[in-house]
Amino acid sequence: MAAPLLQLSDIALTWGGNPLFSGLDLAVHSGDRIALVGRNGSGKSTLLKVMAGDVEADAGTRALAPGVTVARLAQEPAMEGFATLGDFAGRDLDPAEVWRVEAAADGIGIDLALDPASASGGERRRAALAGLVASDAGLFLIDEPTNHLDIRAILWLEDWLAASRAAFVLISHDRAFLTRLTRATLWLDRGVVRRQNKGFADFEAWRDKTWAEEDLARHKLDRKIKAEARWAVEGISARRKRNMGRVRALQDLRSARAAEIRRQGAAAMELATAPRSGKRVIEARGISKSYDRRVLFKGIDLKIARGDRVAFVGPNGVGKTTLLNTLIGTVDPDAGEVRLGTGLEIAVFDQTRASLDSDATLWEALTGDAEMRVSGRADQVMVRGAPRHVVGYLKDFLFDDAQARAPVRSLSGGERARLLLAKLMAREANLLVLDEPTNDLDIETLDLLQEVLDDYDGTVLLVSHDRDFIDRVATQTVAMEAGGRATVHAGGWEQVRVDWTAETAPTGAGQASAARPERRSGETAPRVEPGARAAKGLTFTERHRLDALPDEIDRLEGEIAKLTTLLADPDLFTRDAKKFETASRALAERQAKLDAAEEEWLALAERAET
After folding, report:
1. Looking at residue 569, what is its pLDDT?
2. Distance between CA atoms of residues 21 and 5, nearest Å
3. 94: how many CB neighbours lie within 10 A of its CB?
4. Quick check: 161 and 168 in contact, CB under 8 A?
5. How far is residue 16's CA from residue 458's CA, in Å, rounded to a whole number?
6. Does the pLDDT at position 519 exceed 50?
7. Is there a contact between 460 and 310 (Cβ–Cβ < 8 Å)?
8. What is the pLDDT of residue 120?
9. What does the alpha-carbon distance between residue 339 and residue 344 come to, in Å, rounded to a whole number?
10. What is the pLDDT, as a whole number, of residue 251?
11. Is beta strand 431-435 parallel, antiparallel or unpaired with respect to 294-305?
12. How far apart are CA 523 and CA 308, in angstroms?
């Protein structure tokens, strides 16, 4: 086997006063496509930093193959000193290669002209991702790339990584993303890294088998300790020398058992439904909303009944959160009306985590909440109508005693999400509004959240870009598009994809229509009136595609012009053969895409005129 691109040997690291790794070994080879999985707080992000050389281990060695460059996507990129997001993303590129950042930014969906100081955290991360995609690294270390990406951008990134020849190690909570892209799995569990040369699709079966074997070994050890302890009490005879050796062996067994690190349990999540709401939860009639002359949604009619699980999907900035807030009455529509049903008790999970004060402690975050405060008791919170000690309730969500007095800013993204879930689940509600709840949560917590929602008797409104989570939870999905358009689909994201495919496919007498899942008895689907087709002979989606193609053609022509200028340098091949080869390949790819886009535009334009 060829030498690895990167090898860590006998790595030890203490983080925050606690040992994180000890005796850790791993290797990444050319062509590896690895999922790095583990519970929140297990050290996945820190391990990526050690692999990148950004954090120095306390012990052990890191070996990087000669000529290999490493690019790491950080969760919170530092952009101080850069005038624009584009300056940061292209900081390591030759000026003639800035087109690569622009192409990546177009696919990911980020305006590179934004000032980093005023850009949101999501915009900064998308710019950092564009810089990583544009780099020529041989090994990518990618930490939660799908956070803050919409589904279109996630699909674009999937395609790019699938076509890339670089090796990569990938942390993500997005099951669909991991399943498609990975061929090996690194599992970080209690400071130990296990490797399986199968992709994420096989991870859960492997994990469960490993845990079952661990439980069996622990059971056998417990039985042996019990038997030896019984002998120590009853079986000591005159042959004292031999017997004392057996007693010492028993002490060693007990020490080994005590030294075992028990795996972390699941959070004790539970939702309590408030008294049942009326059958009609929300009815929206012809609602519209615009900001700064930009239409977010227009003329939407929507009915949501008790028990519905409605997901909202669409590009970033299309207005999903604004539509949610309009539906629950916190934002007024510009036109139309929203009628809320009777007896509604609403609980909201905010994607910005705005309800969490970064300077407050976890203790204060719970006891300072007016709805959770127990009168006269600073150490208790009201949880679903009953008082609980604040530390005990935090332990339900996997926080330890020391973290109770730690500031919220010290928490990881996944820990902040768990804290917000703790506040949400303390309330009794019959309408849950979940705006991007899946960001940063580990796989096990996502599984538990999905199970809790399955058992919940109330109504759920969900915004998410996690396709697998939507498929598991949603009974209906509202797909929003630029220009205020919206369509409803019975089912989750997979049904949206099937419906879109069927809509754009050629129709004919012999072609079967896409099947839709049957609705349960008594279940009411939300209704959206998107309006008639914009052009005779074209479907709604085809019309939208026809409008978008000119901008795509202009972008491809601009990239081709920059690549042509770069390749016109007569000394380029002699000076940098690898750059010449990369630019030549990129030019051929973009020329092929331009030809295809022009042919598609001509075909759609001809049909629009018929």
Report:
1. 79
2. 21
3. 11
4. yes
5. 41
6. no
7. yes
8. 83
9. 12
10. 64
11. unpaired
12. 7
Q: What is the CA radius of gyration of the chain?
A: 28
For the full predicted model, state whether its pTM sits above 0.90: no
Q: What is the pLDDT of residue 532?
A: 33
The answer to whether residue 6 scores a pLDDT higher than 80 is: yes
Tokens of 602: 């001509």
Longest CA–CA span in the chain (Å) reads: 106
For 6, 280, 283, 305, 459, the CA distances from 523, given in Å and listed in that order, are: 54, 11, 15, 8, 12
The span from the CA of 437 to the CA of 91, in Å, is 33
Rounded CA separation 585/181 (Å): 23
Position 232 scores a pLDDT of 61
What is the separation, in whole angstroms, between the first and last Cα of the chain? 61
CA-nearest of 284, 326, 327, 287 to 302 is 284
Give Cβ neighbours of residue 15 (< 8 Å, ≥ 6 apart).
Answer: 43, 46
More confident residue, 522 or 143: 143
Beta strands in 426-576 (DSSP E): 431-435, 459-463, 476-481, 485-490
Predicted confidence band of residue 61 (pLDDT cuts 50, 70, 90) = very high
Report which DSSP code applies to 281.
E
Q: Which of 162-176, 248-262, 522-536 has the highest mean pLDDT?
A: 162-176
- What letter represents residue 516's amino acid? R
Please state, as a whole number, how many other Cβ atoms lie within 10 Å of the Cβ of residue 3.
Answer: 11
CA distance 383 to 372: 7
Exposure letters 159-198 (e unless 16+ CB within 10 A, then b): eebeeeebbbbbbbbbbbbbebbbebbbbbbebebeebee
Q: What is the 3-class SS of 472-504, one letter each residue?
A: HHCCEEEEEECCCEEEEEECCHHHHHHHHHHHH
Q: Are 89 and 130 in contact (CB under 8 A)?
A: yes
Q: What is the mean pLDDT of residues 273-287?
A: 87
Mean pLDDT, rounded, of the chain: 82
pLDDT per residue over 529-581, tens digit each? 333 333 445 665 677 678 778 878 888 888 888 888 888 877 777 787 777 77
